[in-house]
Amino acid sequence: MLTIGELAGRCGLATHVLRHWEDEGLLAPERVAGRRQYDDAQVARVVMIQRAKAAGLSLAQIRRMFDAPNGSERRAVLGEQDALLDAQIRRAQESKQLLEHALNCEAPDFTECPHFQRLIALPGTACGGSMR
């Protein structure tokens, strides 16, 4: 069993974060003489919350995942986030392609370069099409 301070220290968190997660229904530590005590199951939940947040899940999504009655519903929550991450990665790759062209373009003004104009006309970029 770990105290809130011990668990926070081991996980690199502030104690108020653990209290907030408890308020959000994500953690349910035992109370011993009024003090929070975290067993292995609660420690595992903290690690899962940290990993899920690192993957971009919101606390509401994490709660849905924890509250899901079975593995397929948990996977559905993760699948939604996976699709969002794919879209973010695609947008980031498009942005990187634009930046790399602008940095390496030999035209006096890269914004007037025909290749740059084609890049910004690609579906899925800023407005989804040409700015002309």
Automatic annotation (TrEMBL):
Cited Gene3D superfamilies: 1.10.1660.10
Superkingdom of origin: Bacteria
Keywords on record: DNA-binding, Repressor, Transcription, Transcription regulation
UniProt xrefs under SUPFAM superfamilies: Putative DNA-binding domain
A Gene Ontology molecular function term of the record: DNA-binding transcription factor activity
Coiled-coil stretches noted in the UniProt entry, renumbered to this chain: none
Classification via Pfam families: MerR_1
Residues of the signal peptide: none
Sequence ranges assigned to domain HTH merR-type in this UniProt record: 1-68
Keyword Transcription: yes
Protein name in UniProt: MerR family transcriptional regulator
